[in-house]
Design goal:
With 118 residues, the protein is an all-alpha fold. Helices cover 67% and strands 0% of the residues.
Length: 118
């Protein structure tokens, strides 16, 4: 995938809601897979990857709630024929930015507590 994790300010550059949502959730999926070890097979959905990260890395209920909001919006936009626009694109982008920061802080804390033997 080679995703570059960006802040919501760069996500707001996309005028098309579909592009904003797909790019943000692709980055989220990559972060869950590469940082939290979530399964990367094509049969495992984003909600399952969130559950994996929650179970293995102790994500807070608040973080999980935000993640599920983002993924639910993505699924509605992609699969619901009558859902073609974000209800609040700034809220979506800010939610992504917040959850991305929380996940990166969790990973940073994990690496700081790691023991390295040389």
């Amino acid at each position: 995938m080679g995703a570059t994790f960006s802040s919501s300010t760069s996500y707001l550059q996309y005028k098309n809601d579909f592009e904003l949502v797909i790019r943000a959730t692709k980055d989220l999926e990559h972060l869950l897979e590469s940082g939290f070890g979530a399964p990367s097979d094509k049969k495992t959905g984003l909600h399952d990857k969130i559950t994996y990260a929650q179970d293995t890395h102790g994500l807070s209920k608040d973080t999980v709630k935000k993640l599920r909001y983002l993924v639910t919006i993505r699924n509605k936009l992609v699969h619901d024929h009558d859902f073609n626009k974000l209800p609040d694109r700034e809220h979506f982008a800010k939610s992504y930015d917040t959850v991305e920061k929380e996940l990166k802080e969790k990973l940073k804390g994990k690496s700081e507590g790691a023991c390295v033997i040389s």
